[in-house]
Amino acid sequence: MYGEYAYLNLCKEVLENGTKKEDRTGTGTYSLFGHQMRFDLSKGFPLLTTKKVPFRLIASELLWFIKGDTNIQYLLQHNNNIWNEWAFKNWVESDAYHGPDMTDFGLRSLEDEGFRAQYEQQMSNFKQLVLTDDEFAKRFGDLGNVYGKQWRNWETARGETIDQLQQVVEAIKINPDSRRLIVSAWNPEDVQPGRSALPPCHVLFQFYVVNGKLSCQLYQRSGDIFLGVPFNIASYALLTHLIAHECNLEVGEFIHTLGDAHIYSNHITQVTTQLERTPMEFPVLSLTSDQKSIFDFEMEDVKLEGYDPHPSIKAPVAV
To answer: Which residues bind (6R)-5,10-methylene-5,6,7,8-tetrahydrofolate (predicted)?
Structure first.
């Protein structure tokens, strides 16, 4: 059985047993609470094959987190648009925006062709401004105290900062048997309105070393199973590989623990289509660089070999 069935079985369970719930976005979900998946990283890199998942977007987002960056300018420079909507929302709701009404742009762009053209034009304008105007990017491209900030520059009540990621990498080298190899993105102060564009969904991860292998367990409070979770699986698998590389360890397991695991009501057709497909073998990750530190890796240092997925399946993002 391919490792992908861990994910596909979650999809089936939510479709069959999930509870219909309302949510922040107004879209509605089918949800269950508490689920765990395990992926043996020595048996291939867990990038889903029942639909094409864009690995380059996952890699550039992870490097963005690792750098401690919170501004989408870096992502746009790497043709990565996955955080655009949250920054765009800040702009169109501000006094600086003077274009057509963009209220509920996510849903309206799906239902109204005329509005979709307006939305796409405004989004194009927004991206160009972020890329070319550093002052605009500083004001509207920054997402606040999201993952990169918490991982690399956690602020204490005394005004000090903690580089959690650097500390955990060093701790793995010095004391691999520690039970405190933890990085937290959930800062109760920073999840208050106005402090970050989106409170972190993947809130805490912990490393575990045994028999020369590094494993990682993620706790994710909220998981968009169709769009988000495939990214999260691959992202933390890649993070585990990078840290294992620096610490001269082999890779063990990635364990993904979910709180509210949900399928959006407008993703049901897409999930059903995906479940009709037969998984392929997972690809192989290759770190082609001589870089010793995870903080020195760039996009060209990370390669994927043997990825042969089914075609992509498009679905709307709930913002």
So the answer is: 224, 318
